[in-house]
Amino acid sequence: MKTKLPIAIAFLSGLAMVAVFILNPEKVGDMEGELLQWTTVIGGFTLLLGVVSIVRVNWRPVVRRETGWLNNAALILSVAVMAIPSVLPVSWSPLFGTDGGSIYDWFFINLSAPMMATMFAMLAFYVASAAFRAFRARNAEATLLLVTATIVMLWRVPVGEGLFVAINPRLPNLINTYVMGGVNVAVQRGIIIGAALGAAATSLRIMLGIERTYMGKT
Amino acid sequence: MGFWQRVSQLDRRWIYLAVALAVIFPLLVPMKMKLGITPEARQLYEAIEALPDSSVVMLTFDYYPSTVAETRPMSIAALHQMFRKNLKVITMTTIPLGGPSIADRTMREMAELYHKTYGVDYVNLGFKANYTAVLLGMGSSIESIYPSDQYGTPLAKLPLMQTVKNYDQISFIFIVADNGIVDNWISIVNAQFSKPMGAGVTAVMAPKFYSYVQAKQMTGLLGGMKGAAEYEMLVNKPAMALIGMDSQSMAHLLIIGFVIAGNVAYFMTRKKKESNG
């Protein structure tokens, strides 16, 4: 029952959405709208589940004083400080909720956003280091990739664009047309079509109960 | 140890220092280099310019704070154009962490600049979980997905939303994103509801979306900080993206220099090893 019921729900839900897409909406009514509302509500519960899960996972090391428990405690404290004031009613205090001037907003603007931006910005350092150490023209394919990457990197910035214009004023447009709009698009289309076929196959596997990893089973 | 061997074993901290200088120096001493505008950015700009005044457009804030350097200038430049043209703007986000805050802050700043009234000239729908259902559901009824806006006001009480029921009343969708949500906007909203749309995405994502532009599923495309800088030029509001292009120029040149130096050092040391037997 534990397995059959979720598979039946997945099958019927998937079938309903496919049917709504194919059949005349007047005949099936607003079944699609109803189902999508359910999905949105379930989506909201998954966010709550995520909060409960992260607190549970990090609570145990704190209680047991495991190695690095201070990091876990900092995480729980951060969740509490950001989440609790954000869900309390604004009518109690303008510091609650998520509007500008709230506790959540202050922490988000002054801590969360700069930390996330910093993490992302650090990629520039790693990319430069990796480019120096690993980006080698070891064979024909790697050389082709390296040359193309260099051309595109130059084309994407004013200094490189200026250089190309000095060689031939049409060069930036030619790169856009033939490298980005030609070779790149051909490859991207292949990837997109492959991914779409893969998504369709996975959906079918879920509906037929072959793919069960969403139930925590393999 | 030979010169090239020393180069190949360069301490990474020197590389980090060089990157830091390449990024910081142009911010202190702007070089103001000339920037060309790609056809994809111009198409997007012209599609919005072609809309009649007071048309309703949707602008999404589908990005995390980590990529605001690339994406937020796109949102700001787009809002300059939209508010200048008196378009009615509906915003939303599919990003729970930061999306609502970025949208709220940006919309307030820009609305104040152009003296726009909330609920009449623009509406912020905020975030709702499960983006596939959200994008699909708004095709039949926005109110069924968003019963209230970001601030808890029922949509029925907002004058703008009394005339906008679903995608039929929205003339154009401008997606600003740093993730795969753009695919869903195209496969769900463009393909099923035939809504014209354009996107501003991060530089690493941009190559993927050229195929959608060619297939005319997307009207135009802004790629990374350069795309944002191009749009700032098009709306004649030079700001952070144009300033940032100098740093990006130097960083790209530096990385290309590292690639060349790394390869020369690699081949020179390999040649030496082979000749030594």
Indicate the mean pLDDT of chain B: 91
Radius of gyration of chain B: 23 Å
Query: At CATH's second level, what is the architecture of the largest domain in chain B?
Result: 3-Layer(aba) Sandwich
Largest sheet of chain B: 6 strands, parallel
Q: What is the straight-line distance between the termini of chain A?
A: 17 Å
SSE string of chain A, helices as H and strands as E: HHHHHHHH
Shape of chain A: extended
Poorly predicted runs of chain B: none
Walkthrough of the structure:
The complex is a heterodimer of chains A (218) and B (277). By secondary structure, chain A is mainly alpha-helical. Chain A folds into two domains: 1-87, no CATH class; 135-218, no CATH class. Chain A has eight helices and no strands. Chain A has helices at residues 4-22, 25-28, 31-63, 69-87, 103-134, 140-155, 158-167, 171-207. The radius of gyration of chain A is 26 Å and the shape is extended. By secondary structure, chain B is of the alpha/beta class. Chain B folds into two domains: 3-30 and 247-275; 39-238, Rossmann fold, CATH 3.40.50. Helix content of chain B is 55%, strand content 12%. Chain B contains twelve helices and six strands. In chain B, strands 3-2-1-4-5-6 form a six-stranded parallel sheet, with helices on both faces. The model of chain B has no long low-confidence stretch (mean pLDDT 91). At the A-B interface, α3, α5, α6, α7 and α8 of A face α2, α5, α6, α10 and α12 of B.
Q: How is this structure best summarized?
A:
With 218 residues, chain A is mainly alpha-helical. Helices cover 78% and strands 0% of the residues of chain A.
What would the keywords be for this entry?
heterodimer; A: 218 residues; 2 domains; extended; B: 277 residues; alpha/beta; Rossmann fold; 6-stranded parallel beta sheet; 12 helices; elongated
Secondary-structure map:
The complex is a heterodimer of chains A (218) and B (277).
Chain A: H1 4-22, H2 25-28, H3 31-63, H4 69-87, H5 103-134, H6 140-155, H7 158-167, H8 171-207
Helix pairs in contact in A: 3-4, 4-5, 6-7, 6-8
Chain B: H1 3-8, H2 12-28, H3 39-49, E1 56-62, H4 68-84, E2 88-93, H5 99-113, E3 122-127, H6 131-137, H7 142-145, H8 159-163, E4 172-177, H9 181-193, E5 197-201, H10 206-214, E6 221-223, H11 224-234, H12 240-275
Parallel strand pairs in B: 1-2, 1-4, 2-3, 4-5, 5-6
Helix pairs in contact in B: 2-12, 4-5, 4-11, 6-9, 11-12
